[in-house]
Design goal:
Blueprint lengths: L1 E5 L3 H11 L6 E5 L2 H10 L7 E4 L8 H9 L9 E5 L4 H10 L3 E4 L4 H24 L2
Parallel strand pairs: 1-2, 1-3, 3-4, 4-5
Helix pairs in contact: 1-5, 2-3, 3-4
Length: about 140
Amino acid sequence: MKVLIVEDNKVAIIGLKKIISKYSDIEIEVAENGQIGLDILTNNKSNLPNFILLDLNMPIMNGIELLSIIKNDDELKCIPVIILTTSNNIDDYKKCEHLGASGYFIKEVEFEKHNKNVLLILDYWEASFGRHHFND
């Protein structure tokens, strides 16, 4: 299984990598803004991630802009995109839902709650598709 993390906060990236590393068979790729994420996706269409963890508030290209591009691209739109953000703005949620985000999680301030949410996301995708799907 491969996950693309699009996140500009270095501390958040370290935390996500630590949580995801509990699943030894998950390959992690990181983009520090939406433009880098888009470049990774468009330059590597033969090895796309199984899903994307996407922050909204980033420089250069924000998460909503990237989500819109992904969901309007015939080759990328099938990739599940899970929003993982500090934004509890209802308009952001509605935009992401309208664009086709597969989930919207608000980053928890409390470390344990945040870890639990990330593990929930990983467990959900594993249960939904099974390990055999991720290795295809």
